[in-house]
Specification:
The complex is a heterodimer.
Chain A lengths: L4 E3 L2 E4 L5 E6 L6 E8 L3 E9 L2 E5 L6 E5 L5 E5 L8 E8 L8 E2 L3 E5 L1
Parallel strand pairs in A: 2-11
Antiparallel strand pairs in A: 1-3, 3-8, 4-5, 4-9, 5-6, 7-8, 9-10, 9-11
Chain B lengths: L2 E3 L4 E5 L4 E3 L2 E3 L5 E7 L5 E7 L5 E3 L5 E5 L4 E6 L8 E8 L8 E2 L3 E6 L1
Parallel strand pairs in B: 2-12
Antiparallel strand pairs in B: 1-4, 3-9, 5-6, 5-10, 7-8, 8-9, 10-11, 10-12
Classes of the chains: A mainly beta, B mainly beta.
């Protein structure tokens, strides 16, 4: 079974631009979560989607948004990029809501210049 | 709010030596506890998890962890470390509700000496 796929793996943007990252969960998984990983703040929860609905949101500004499609694929968008948005963005999927393990993708590394 | 503390930022062990990585959590109810490993440039891979039951849990790659409620700890152990174990290890805690957000510790980077 294929794992969680994230695209693109690497990208470089400049301040003020916007970026969209994509995540394809494991087949059959309906929950997708996003995390930001930086050297200074570590791993921080962004949001979680299940059945196309945002179920949980972390403490990030409104510039960070996401959505989930009917096939469970998810995208996250960051608008008006700032230098501090440089990070590894990790997507994780799980079969459904509730307690359970998360299956992580390899991440999208965003560099903002 | 829940929190996770990994007091050791960096640990170096010799190949073949035993390993223990510390994790302390703060959470009011019964926690769901996880250990993940991350190799450079990679995502996170689950090593093991604790939800309930036996407090000593076995994971992949020969790792085990013990949940000690009285100490609010969930330390990761391995009896004999291999060079391929060099990576960053993250402890995480989740809530026993429908919410899936995990709170991660700051990680422990493991270096293995030949």
């Amino acid at each position: 079974k294929a794992g969680v796929t994230q695209t693109p793996r690497y990208l470089i943007k400049t301040r003020g631009q916007q970026v969209t990252l994509s995540c394809s969960p494991i087949s059959g998984h309906r929950s997708v979560s996003w995390y930001q990983q930086t050297p200074g703040q570590g791993l921080q929860f962004l949001f979680e989607y299940f059945s196309e609905t945002q179920r949980n949101k972390g403490n990030f500004p409104g510039r960070f948004s996401g959505r989930q499609f009917s096939n469970s694929r998810s995208e996250m968008n960051v608008s008006t990029l700032e230098l501090g948005d440089s990070a590894l963005y990790l997507c994780a999927s799980s079969p459904d809501l509730g307690a359970g393990e998360l299956f992580f993708g390899e991440g999208s590394r965003l560099t903002v210049l | 709010a829940q929190s996770v503390t990994q007091p050791d930022i960096h640990i170096t062990v010799s190949e073949g030596a035993s390993l223990e990585l510390r994790c302390n959590y703060s959470y009011g109810a019964t926690p769901y506890l996880f250990w993940y490993v991350q190799s450079p440039g990679q995502g996170l891979q689950l090593l093991l998890k604790y939800f309930s039951g036996d407090t000593l849990v076995q994971g992949i790659k020969g790792f085990e962890a013990e949940f000690k409620r009285s100490q609010s700890s969930f330390n990761l152990r391995k009896p004999s470390v291999h060079w391929s174990d060099a990576a960053e290890y993250f402890c995480a805690v989740g809530m026993d509700t429908g919410r899936r957000a995990l709170t991660f510790g700051s990680g422990t980077r493991l270096q293995v000496q030949p």
